[in-house]
Design brief:
- With 606 residues, the chain is α+β, with helices and mostly antiparallel strands.
- It has 3 domains: 165 residues, Glutaredoxin (3-Layer(aba) Sandwich), CATH 3.40.30.10; 339 residues, Glycosyltransferase; 72 residues, no CATH class.
- The strands form 7 sheets. A 5-stranded mixed β-sheet has the order 1-3-2-4-5, sandwiched between helices. The protein has a 3-stranded antiparallel β-sheet with strand order 8-9-14. A 3-stranded antiparallel β-sheet has the order 15-16-17.
- It is globular.
């Protein structure tokens, strides 16, 4: 992914695996910081901002096509100051500039491509661009040359666009969308989810299809609150079909980020820590409701994957595994019948291929993604004896052989919020799966000790990222909210009072750093970055439950749980203020705020 011929650029001094991937590009990259903006001001150049993450397939493609290319580098180095940002280290920048991108283009994604002035105000936005235009998509070189021409000869137009766009985005964040939540709104969210539900393969919509575990948690809560059988049926169909599909790694376990098709067969092969944490929680919740062993076993497999592949010797959790290996998406995970039979032998290999849909024709790129699509639940027994070898023993042999391949890149940084979600999952696992209580709680408590020791500075400020001996970046709202979630689960599972005391303490600090209570006493805004963080052109705030539940949503749930445990009714009032502040926005699109509604249902049902 990098051009080793080029001398290292400024990114070579960074800790982010994503930035380090670009450290030998011929592009004269800067990390985000004062140096880059001062240089742009001094040389009167626009900023070329590229935001992505280390396991992003299309980020790799754009790097190979453009950022390793001398022609592109020459244009960028001559006419622009180029900045690289790891969205996982700086989600505040990602949130803010994604809002700009969506406002300007109507969509977003990664790599995110922004061009802006030295005042950090964008006038151009997009995502992936090829080097040369194709299939109606403009090429990066063409875009850069047009922007250069505008910058030299019609800068007023660019400045006008930047000012108008900034004013629009400031208006988006400042707009008062407060209104009361009512019991009718969760009902509408349920009805909308039912409308988009895929009755054949589960999930919502067609393709690409994301697991969105918070939708499932909402439906499980709705089932409990309303005794709505269809809500449970939608969850069960989705959980079963996701497990059957290729989105689940049937050899090494763990879920990929999303499926590119409606069947959950062909994943986008990257695996993210947060998806696996939230999916483990969803499967455990379904197991508690139904008692069905499959859900318990899938949660255990997720925990095994995380313990084996995503945990450091110190007990912290890594962030992600790449979609690509050897520059090819999914190569590490694919099998042909001949490869299987070479390892297992003809008879056992044939049986394994028959069970996991591994054929000569193939189901992806001429090869095969192992899957169980079409199998009935009663057939999902990995311990079944077939051709003299159990499927479990065959899996272990194939996994051992796969581990000799060149593996996908692993992003080994520790992110506070994502670690907190996995701590919460293991803590719940220790409570629900009593036979594994000591094991899972041990994992959760060890990870929490790591966060407490490595990611809190001398002033008691939580930090967002740890890697290679360095903790950095003031933590964001999500980090605080997710950490409190983890602490509450640790308390529920162990009844150790110190976890409750920590949750109360971190909650107070969260409200002080991120809260903005209005004089009317009815509204409470929790901003994404703290009042002590870098001042951006707009202070971002997020209540939409996207790939992750929003920090506002999780904070509301934490406040309610803390109020219930401690008897402090002021905390419940804070949660109600969050509900009211977001109520108008949620009412306009209930399906986009399912974790906030999950918290609201919890309050209705107490």
């Amino acid at each position: 992914m990098t051009n080793n011929i080029s001398a290292p650029n400024r990114l070579a001094h960074e800790k982010s695996p994503y930035l380090l991937q670009h450290a030998h590009n011929p592009v004269d990259w800067y990390p985000w910081g004062d140096e880059a903006f001062a240089k742009a001001q001094a040389e009167d150049k626009p900023i070329f901002l590229s935001i992505g993450y280390s396991t992003c397939h299309w980020c790799h493609v754009m790097e190979r096509e453009s950022f390793e290319d001398e022609e592109v580098a020459d244009v960028l180095n001559a006419g622009f100051i180029s900045i690289k940002v790891d969205r996982e280290e700086r989600p505040d920048l990602d949130h803010l500039y994604m809002t700009f991108c969506q406002a300007l283009t109507g969509h977003g994604g990664w790599p995110m491509t922004m061009i802006m002035n030295a005042e950090k105000k964008p006038f151009f936005a997009g995502t992936y661009f090829p080097k040369q235009g194709r299939m109606g998509m403009p090429g990066l070189l063409e875009i850069l040359k047009k922007i250069e021409d505008y910058w030299q000869h019609d800068r007023g137009k660019l400045s006008e666009t930047a000012e108008e766009l900034t004013a629009f985005v400031m208006g988006v964040y400042a707009k008062d969308k407060s209104d009361s939540l009512t019991p009718a709104i969760p009902e509408r969210a349920y009805e909308e989810l039912a409308t988009y539900f895929d009755p054949v393969y589960g999930g919502f919509g067609q393709a690409p299809k994301f697991p969105s575990p918070h939708n499932l948690l909402f439906l499980l809560s709705y089932y409990r609150h309303k005794i709505a059988p269809q809500a449970l049926a939608m969850v069960e169909k989705t959980l079963v079909q996701m497990y059957k599909g290729g989105i689940f790694d049937h050899l090494g376990f763990g879920f990929a980020r999303y499926s590119t098709d409606p069947k959950w067969l062909v994943p986008h092969f990257e695996k993210m820590l947060y998806d696996n944490a939230l999916l483990a929680i969803a499967y455990l919740d379904a197991f508690q409701i139904t008692g069905k062993i499959l859900y318990r076993d899938v949660a255990k497999k997720i925990f095994k994957y995380v313990s084996n592949q995503m945990t450091s010797a110190e007990g912290a959790f890594y962030s992600a595994e790449d979609a690509d290996s050897e520059g090819v998406e999914g190569k590490y995970y694919l099998w042909t019948p001949a490869e299987v039979e070479e390892i297992l032998g003809k008879e056992a290999g044939t049986a394994f291929c028959r069970y996991y849909d591994i054929t000569e024709k193939g189901n992806f790129a001429g090869s095969n993604i192992p899957n169980l699509i079409g199998k009935e639940i009663e057939d999902l027994s990995p311990n079944a004896d077939d051709a003299g070898m159990s499927l479990e023993k065959a899996r272990q042999k194939l996994l051992a052989a796969r581990e000799k391949r060149i593996p996908p890149f692993k992003d080994d940084k520790t992110l506070t919020g994502w670690n907190a979600l996995m701590i919460a999952a293991f803590a719940i696992g220790g409570r629900v799966l009593e036979e594994h209580s000591a094991e899972y709680l041990g994992v959760a408590e060890k990870a929490f000790v790591f966060l407490r020791q490595k990611l809190v500075n001398g002033d008691g400020r939580l930090l967002a990222r740890y890697r290679d001996g360095e903790a950095a970046y003031p933590a964001y709202l999500d980090d605080y909210a997710f950490l409190m979630w983890a602490l509450l689960e640790l308390y529920e599972s162990t009844r150790h009072d110190e976890y409750l005391a920590e949750a109360v303490s971190w909650n107070e600090r969260m409200l002080a750093l991120f809260g903005g209570e209005e004089e009317d006493g009815k509204t409470l805004r929790l901003y994404f970055n703290g009042e002590d963080s870098e001042k951006l052109i707009v202070r971002p705030r997020e209540i939409y439950d996207g790939a992750l539940p929003a920090g506002n949503s999780v904070a509301a749930w934490n406040l309610l749980r803390l109020a219930e445990i401690t008897g402090n009714q002021n905390l419940r009032e804070k949660a109600e203020q969050l509900f009211f502040t977001a109520g108008g926005e949620i009412g306009a699109n209930p399906m986009g705020y399912t974790f906030m509604l999950y918290a609201y249902l919890w309050e209705l049902g107490r």
